[in-house]
């Protein structure tokens, strides 16, 4: 391990989100001296404004939905008195705070020097951090003197500054009537009505949450279907499930304009049929995607230029290294095929740290990275959709099975399906797609199936527990392997 000096380090990571802190932890574990610069809180958007708080709230929404199901379907005479918003928020914030302390403790234990401030490149191996300040966990190895720090980096610089919500022209988020996905959970109270712009995973999750909490919800998506990056059958089943819950799903629709008023937002929407419809809602939630954050990063000082979309494109995807040797990029700064998901950025961080330590470098298998929407119903997928597989010239065999065709699916009574796309003639599995309850917990098996290029006959040899929802996965593969049992 190199001798540490105040302003010299082996690895300097700019950004303390999932990609950044995973890089720092792995690099430190490999014996490298690591500095992690973060201008806000380690954990980034995922921990503080995205994945963790939103899934905590969605769990609360599941509990609310369960009360209605108990009463309406199972004869349990339960009623919902009210939702104590302050108590719900307190539980959410406690979960976030404990996770935050855990990340800080991991970094401190690993010996990562955490510097709080704003970093910018001043060269290919130099970084300036301004506004350095204190404020992390007691005992953390944190730079404490305020002001400016200049660092010289021996091995490599890792760019991990993440992304921010996009908005639309003329829509200025105010945190109250017009909110983005970053501040939607922190807006005051529960609105009685919400207009959600954007039918991707984030927009669908927020639409689902607010509907569970009793709001009237309109979901507007410009593409011809929601979750348009997923298999068309996933979109169809999800749309059906959301509409069944009373969400007004408007695909192929566009916002014409919106006026913010004292009691809410008045919007005009052009529907897929070309009609103009007015929507009045207490809150307008903008979830039209995220943009990479590179402003103030000083890319030009190192000879780097983002592409026209703002992404920092690697010259070497196996090492996630830019055209400037020794400068790597992880997380939301990466363009596709990186999916901009927290769990993908963990894998990217591990890869970059190991490359910087001189270990043999593979690459992230993005085709085997699972994609999940935590709405009700949930969606989960890995690999190619049927359309993508055919577009790549693959001859495919496709099999779909409704979850209600297995006993546990009948117990849940919420519909859903499992769809498998495989190469024709018994070839490898190309993609697995699911909609239904708890499918986020079912996708891991399919991740291994796709990642290991398994064939349907390989999966069909293994026995799935009965009665479980995962039986549907087993049954789909049995049929594709020519051994269909309950499905012919």
UniProtKB/TrEMBL annotation:
<dbReference type="GO" id="GO:0050660">
    <property type="term" value="F:flavin adenine dinucleotide binding"/>
</dbReference>
<dbReference type="GO" id="GO:0004148">
    <property type="term" value="F:dihydrolipoyl dehydrogenase (NADH) activity"/>
</dbReference>
<dbReference type="InterPro" id="IPR012999">
    <property type="entry name" value="Pyr_OxRdtase_I_AS"/>
</dbReference>
<feature type="binding site">
    <location>
        <position position="332"/>
    </location>
    <ligand>
        <name>FAD</name>
    </ligand>
</feature>
<keyword id="KW-1015">Disulfide bond</keyword>
<dbReference type="InterPro" id="IPR050151">
    <property type="entry name" value="Class-I_Pyr_Nuc-Dis_Oxidored"/>
</dbReference>
<keyword id="KW-0285">Flavoprotein</keyword>
<feature type="disulfide bond" description="Redox-active">
    <location>
        <begin position="46"/>
        <end position="51"/>
    </location>
</feature>
<feature type="binding site">
    <location>
        <begin position="198"/>
        <end position="205"/>
    </location>
    <ligand>
        <name>NAD(+)</name>
    </ligand>
</feature>
<dbReference type="InterPro" id="IPR016156">
    <property type="entry name" value="FAD/NAD-linked_Rdtase_dimer_sf"/>
</dbReference>
<feature type="domain" description="Pyridine nucleotide-disulphide oxidoreductase dimerisation">
    <location>
        <begin position="369"/>
        <end position="475"/>
    </location>
</feature>
<keyword id="KW-0676">Redox-active center</keyword>
<protein>
    <recommendedName>
        <fullName>Dihydrolipoyl dehydrogenase</fullName>
        <ecNumber>1.8.1.4</ecNumber>
    </recommendedName>
</protein>
<keyword id="KW-0560">Oxidoreductase</keyword>
<feature type="binding site">
    <location>
        <position position="221"/>
    </location>
    <ligand>
        <name>NAD(+)</name>
    </ligand>
</feature>
<feature type="binding site">
    <location>
        <position position="55"/>
    </location>
    <ligand>
        <name>FAD</name>
    </ligand>
</feature>
<feature type="active site" description="Proton acceptor">
    <location>
        <position position="466"/>
    </location>
</feature>
<dbReference type="GO" id="GO:0006103">
    <property type="term" value="P:2-oxoglutarate metabolic process"/>
</dbReference>
<feature type="domain" description="FAD/NAD(P)-binding">
    <location>
        <begin position="10"/>
        <end position="349"/>
    </location>
</feature>
<keyword id="KW-0963">Cytoplasm</keyword>
<dbReference type="InterPro" id="IPR023753">
    <property type="entry name" value="FAD/NAD-binding_dom"/>
</dbReference>
<keyword id="KW-0547">Nucleotide-binding</keyword>
<dbReference type="InterPro" id="IPR036188">
    <property type="entry name" value="FAD/NAD-bd_sf"/>
</dbReference>
<dbReference type="InterPro" id="IPR004099">
    <property type="entry name" value="Pyr_nucl-diS_OxRdtase_dimer"/>
</dbReference>
<dbReference type="Pfam" id="PF07992">
    <property type="entry name" value="Pyr_redox_2"/>
</dbReference>
<dbReference type="Pfam" id="PF02852">
    <property type="entry name" value="Pyr_redox_dim"/>
</dbReference>
<dbReference type="InterPro" id="IPR006258">
    <property type="entry name" value="Lipoamide_DH"/>
</dbReference>
<feature type="binding site">
    <location>
        <position position="289"/>
    </location>
    <ligand>
        <name>NAD(+)</name>
    </ligand>
</feature>
<keyword id="KW-0274">FAD</keyword>
<keyword id="KW-0520">NAD</keyword>
<dbReference type="InterPro" id="IPR001100">
    <property type="entry name" value="Pyr_nuc-diS_OxRdtase"/>
</dbReference>
<comment type="similarity">
    <text>Belongs to the class-I pyridine nucleotide-disulfide oxidoreductase family.</text>
</comment>
<feature type="binding site">
    <location>
        <begin position="161"/>
        <end position="163"/>
    </location>
    <ligand>
        <name>FAD</name>
    </ligand>
</feature>
<dbReference type="GO" id="GO:0005737">
    <property type="term" value="C:cytoplasm"/>
</dbReference>
């Amino acid at each position: 391990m190199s001798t540490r000096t105040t302003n010299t380090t082996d690895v300097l990571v700019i950004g303390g989100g999932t990609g950044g802190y995973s890089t720092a932890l792995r690099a430190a574990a490999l014996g490298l001296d690591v500095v992690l610069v973060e201008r806000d809180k380690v954990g980034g958007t995922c921990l503080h404004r995205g994945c963790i708080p939103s899934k905590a709230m969605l769990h609360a929404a599941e509990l609310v939905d369960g009360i209605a199901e108990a009463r309406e379907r199972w004869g349990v005479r339960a009623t919902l008195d009210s939702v104590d918003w302050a108590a719900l928020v307190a539980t959410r914030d406690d979960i976030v705070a404990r996770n935050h302390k855990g990340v800080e403790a991991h970094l401190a234990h690993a010996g990562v020097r955490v510097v709080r401030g704003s970093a910018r490149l001043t060269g290919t191996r130099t970084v300036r951090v301004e506004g350095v300040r204190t404020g992390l966990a007691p005992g953390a190895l944190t730079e404490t003197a305020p002001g400016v720090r200049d660092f010289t980096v021996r091995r490599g610089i890792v760019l991990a500054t993440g992304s921010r919500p996009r908005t639309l022209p003329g829509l200025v988020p105010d945190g109250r009537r017009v909110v983005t996905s970053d501040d939607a959970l922190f807006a005051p109270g529960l609105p009685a009505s919400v207009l959600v712009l954007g039918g991707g995973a984030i927009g669908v999750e927020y639409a689902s949450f607010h509907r569970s909490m009793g709001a009237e919800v309109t979901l507007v998506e410009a593409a011809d279907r929601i979750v348009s990056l997923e298999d068309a059958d996933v979109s169809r089943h999800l749309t059906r499930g959301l509409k069944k819950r009373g969400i007004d799903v408007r695909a192929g629709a566009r916002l014409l304009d919106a006026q913010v008023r004292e009691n809410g937002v008045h919007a005009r929407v052009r529907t897929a049929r070309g009609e103009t419809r007015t929507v009045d809602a207490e809150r307008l939630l903008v979830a039209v995607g995220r943009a990479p954050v590179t402003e103030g990063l000083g890319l030009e000082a190192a000879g780097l230029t983002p592409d026209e979309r703002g992404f920092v494109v690697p010259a070497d995807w196996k090492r996630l290294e830019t055209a400037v040797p020794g400068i790597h990029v992880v997380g939301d700064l990466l363009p596709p095929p990186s999916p901009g998901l927290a769990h993908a950025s963990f894998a990217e961080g591990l890869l970059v740290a190991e490359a910087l330590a001189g270990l043999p470098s593979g690459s992230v298998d993005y085709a085997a990275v699972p994609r999940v929407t935590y709405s009700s119903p949930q969606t989960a997928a890995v690999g190619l959709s049927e359309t993508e597989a055919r577009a790549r010239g693959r001859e495919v065999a496709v099999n779909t099975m409704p979850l209600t065709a297995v006993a546990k699916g009948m117990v849940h009574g919420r519909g859903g399906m499992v769809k498998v796309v495989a190469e024709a003639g018994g070839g490898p599995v190309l993609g697995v797609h699911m909609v239904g309850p708890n499918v986020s917990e079912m996708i891991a098996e399919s991740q291994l199936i796709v990642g290991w290029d398994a064939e349907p006959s390989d999966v069909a040899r293994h026995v799935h527990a009965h009665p479980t929802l995962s039986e549907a996965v087993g049954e789909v593969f049995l049929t594709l392997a020519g051994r269909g049992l309950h499905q012919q």
